[in-house]
Amino acid sequence: MPTAVEVNFDGIPGPTHNYSGLAAGNLAETRHAGETANPREAALQGLAKMRALAQRGIPQAVLPPHERPHVPALRSLGFEGSDAEVIARAAAHAPRLLAACSSASAMWVANAATVSASSDTADGRVHFTPANLATYFHRMLEAPTTTRVLRAIFADPARFAVHEPLPAAPQFGDEGAANHTRLVGADGRGLNLFVYGRAAFGAAAPGPARFPARQTREAGEAVARRHGLDPARTHFVQQSAAAIDAGVFHNDVIAVGAGSVLFCHERAFAAQDLVLAALARDLGQAFQPIVVAGADVPLEAAVGTYLFNSQMLARADGRYALVAPAEVREHPAVSDFVDRLLASGGPIADVAFFDLRQSMRNGGGPACLRLRVPLTKDERDAAGARVFLDAKLHAELEAWILRHYRDRLAPGDLADPALLDESRRALDELTRILRLPAVYPFQLD
Ligand code: SUG
Fold first, then answer.
1. Total of domains in the chain
2. Is the distance from the beta carbon of residue 302 to the nearest atom of ligand 1 less than 6 Å?
3. Position 252 in a domain
4. Residue 212 Cα, ligand 1 centroid: separation in angstroms?
């Protein structure tokens, strides 16, 4: 069987990146609500991470931002008139709705979809289920554009299946790959771990008391079913409710896995011992858990620094490099822990820190900004559009950001009708750079 290599598709932060405090339970974004953002810096920080990884030889691709403000959504909520009037009326009467329809949250593409490798699926195709993101309105708006973008890139029906998002009801709340981990055994076979915060119909341990559990067990089960995953190689495990209440709104804030390594906090899962025992049984000797004790990294420090929201990238020698947010280095205890981890001679061999502060203030670290897509060479060659990052595309994207993005955006600026025109002009040009078909509502009208 041809081997798949994981391609990181990173979301480009969009021109309306701002701090509006739309996602309760995400402590960073609540703390920074109302601050003035710098969309240009956000996009450049994301692009710098992509370039650095591409230069290390890690396959890297991009996913475009979405059209914001989302005028059709505002119209559906009863605001009428020209596009500029719709925005003016929403700004005057419902600024929170305007903020929700202006969020650049599509940058966190770990929530764009759940992806299954062709070697794991019954029909041998790569399967995608775009996430419905049903918990928050500002995120739910992403699903239709995400579906169109994925269908444009993964258009070949012989190799790819891009499903419809699951029904957007609370019972099927789905936040995509942020709650899914694919591990690999010594035999090269995939093992899929779907993590949920609550069960809508079946029995589950008590859920969180303070913050929403966004992902349901039923959503993961439906995704696994439609992707044709082997039930014997698929686990559905519940997140720790205490962790959700401490700000772990997605599993990728508390755990990351790659190959046969699972790097997680000791309070990641509800029945953690059982989870680790099941993985050890299925992965055998190959399984390498790195479970971090609260005494080393308290839960609050894990959430505060986003240590576990690092990317774990396979090196040529079989060990891993951690791509971590700069906040980890700035926290003395967590930084010391990382130094001890590197010195231990375990599977994590080196760490690179990135300044992703613009995104981090909204609760999005390195791992939130990327969607992992395992592709064989043949599948990669079959992908449409110009999304794989090379030096030329990087240079074009950097120039595009510098041409179109503002360097400050306060929540009050969302009322400015010029922002809509700027954003549409930028995205229209981007679809040409990336050789995408029409994917945005303003292009489809
Ligand atoms: O859904 N923040 C996002 C952050 C998502 C991070 N992704 C992962 N952990 N994979 C969220 O909470 C805030 C946007 C605002 O308030 O404008 C926001 O949606």
1. 1
2. no
3. yes
4. 13
